Amino acid sequence: MSGVPNSRKKKHDFLADHKLKDIRKRVTELAIYDFGYDKERLEEKIARFEESDLNLDPERKKEIARRMRAKNESFYADFAQEATVETRRLIRLASTEFELGNSIFPSGETTFMEFCERRRHFNAAIGYLNCLKQELQYIAETLPGDKNRYEHISDDIKDEISLIRGVRRAANKFLGGKKKK
Q: How far is CA 169 from CA 61, 104, 129, 153, in A?
């Protein structure tokens, strides 16, 4: 064990890689559980609508409730399936881009070109994570269910973006203070 307190230790590449794998695992778990989609919660909402004091014709109210149930049965199942494919694609791409960027170690005559390629992969990883965050936000707003389960993963994605930016910033050492144009 080192004598350096945890608060003074610098974050490093391995932490970024580890957290990225953790986010991937959590996105997969969300997908397994249909992103918190709660069929019963929506059914309760429909029942409250049916019992409400709205000035609607009873037949009209039944028709609206029937359409809401039909939407519940068909749309949300398809939506959850599409969301699963898209979120898993985004996190997979983010992981791939990070690994590609992290595997490039600029040296020799092509240092600057390799540096630019490394940075491009890190930028792509950050972009995919931002897209993932937006996709999860949309899913949370669209599906009926517990929205709180998305809060922590969103914070973790922000932290991961910061870690990747740190790795990207640390890569400036490859230039050795000589930026070429």
A: 59, 14, 18, 24
Map tokens 């690994």 to a residue.
99
Calpha distance 136→150 (Å, rounded): 7
Q: First CA to last CA across the chain, in angstroms?
A: 44
More confident call, 172 vs 36: 172
What's the CA gap between 170 and 118, in Å, rounded?
Answer: 12
Percent of the chain with pLDDT over 70: 91
Residues 39 and 72: beta-carbon distance below 8 Å: yes
Strand partners, 1: none
- For the entire predicted model, the pTM comes to 0.76
> H/E/C letters for each residue in 77-145?
HHHHHHHHHHHHHHHHHHHHHHHHHHCCCCCHHHHHHHHHHHHHHHHHHHHHHHHHHHHHHHHHHHCCE
For residues 154 and 135, the answer to whether their CB atoms sit within 8 Å is no
Spatial separation of the C-alpha atoms in residues 15 and 98, rounded to whole Å: 12
- Spell out the residues 6+ positions from residue 77 whose beta carbon is closer than 8 angstroms to its own: none
Rounded Cα distance between 71 and 75, Å, is 5
Closest among 13, 10, 32, 22 to 129, alpha carbons compared: 22
